[in-house]
Amino acid sequence: MTSHGMSQTINKYSNATFNNGSATSPSLSRSFIRYSWTGLLIVGTLFLATQQAQAFSVLGVLNSVSVTGGVGVSKDILYGDAPLQDLDIYYPKPLAQAMHSQQPIAASYPMVVFVHGGSWESGNKEEYAFVGKSFAQAGYVTAVINYRKAPEHLYPDYVKDTARAIAWSYRNASRFHANPQRLAVVGHSAGAFNAVAAIANEDFLAPYGMKPSDIRAVVGIAGPYSYDFRKFSSASAFPATATPDKVMPDRQIKGKQPPYLLLTAENDKVVYAQNTLNMTQALKNHGATVETGVIKGASHATSIGAMASPLRWVNDVRAQVLQYLATKQ
């Protein structure tokens, strides 16, 4: 990205509009719905009724009803030159307000890079805006990334993109008033695979002059880290000659590791807990510090959906993640 392009990107916040203390980018082109508790319960009920793995059609609903809490956003920032190598940055309310009014900013915020799921074939950063808002509301400058997907791009392309986005965020954190020494990476489902694979194997970060230990913490939510993809439809996201031993993150750990939190969803019928058990043991065998947790009552979909403001009552995934990050950042 040219310096001119970076300047344009960073200055997008100056065009943000403030309504009742909320900062949003005009490019979102959304009005934020004022909802009653009755409406919230209806949305929650509908969500719970469709909480299987492919229930991500409700993500648009989650984004439309999520209260912004005053967060700001800069959209479509390039971290690479190929299509889908871009990300959005979400800012906590005090930072968004200071940026909007061009006040001096002395604070240096912790940062989260979020990697979405979708079986390596679907999903995008817009659909997961509610996650960026959720972390920003908690005080984190948050990058929600896109990455190239199957079937056009097979493993390891999407892992390479994730590593590149992490490295870009690390190098550019200070431009967004974040501290690169306080950068954590969070992924869900296929995004958890990407995040863990990109960090656990030092070969992915090495081209950018980074080491896994440069990351403050890694959080994987319902990640498929250890399974035989050849027996599932997700085989289309991997090369025909690939085997689990060649691609699964639990078998590709290299370099000194950061601490990890690996969460499983209690009612997950898509990604089974054995993936986390295997990944945890492999990391510990390598000398890494790993904590695990179970998201009670969560399905595969609600293990990330409950990050949205109207659905935080559904389970405690947000509380678990934020509590862990607070101890590491």
Largest sheet descriptor: 8 strands, mixed
Which structural class should the secondary elements be placed in? alpha/beta
Poorly predicted ranges: 1-57
CATH architecture: 3-Layer(aba) Sandwich
Strand content: 15-25%
User: At the first level of CATH, what is the class?
Assistant: Alpha Beta
Rg measurement, Å: 19 Å
Q: What name does the CATH topology carry?
A: Rossmann fold
- Our measurement of the CA-to-CA distance between the termini, rounded to an integer number of angstroms, reads 29 Å
- Helical element count? 12
Strand order of the largest sheet: 3-4-6-5-7-8-9-10
What's the shape?
A: globular
Order of helices and strands: HEEHHEEHEHEHEHHEHEHEHH
Total beta strand runs: 10
Helical content (DSSP H or I, runs of 4+): 25-40%
Number of domains: 1
- How confident overall, as mean pLDDT? 85
Give me the CATH superfamily. Alpha/Beta hydrolase fold, catalytic domain
Question: Could you walk me through the main structural features you see in this protein, from its secondary elements to its overall organization?
Answer:
Strand 9 (260-265), helix 10 and strand 10 form a beta-alpha-beta unit. The chain has a single domain, classed as Alpha/Beta hydrolase fold, catalytic domain (Rossmann fold, 3-Layer(aba) Sandwich), CATH 3.40.50. The strands form 2 sheets. Strands 3-4-6-5-7-8-9-10 form an 8-stranded mixed β-sheet, sandwiched between helices. The longest helix is centred in the middle third of the chain and has 16 residues, at 157-172. 33% of the residues lie in helices and 18% in strands. It is an alpha/beta fold.
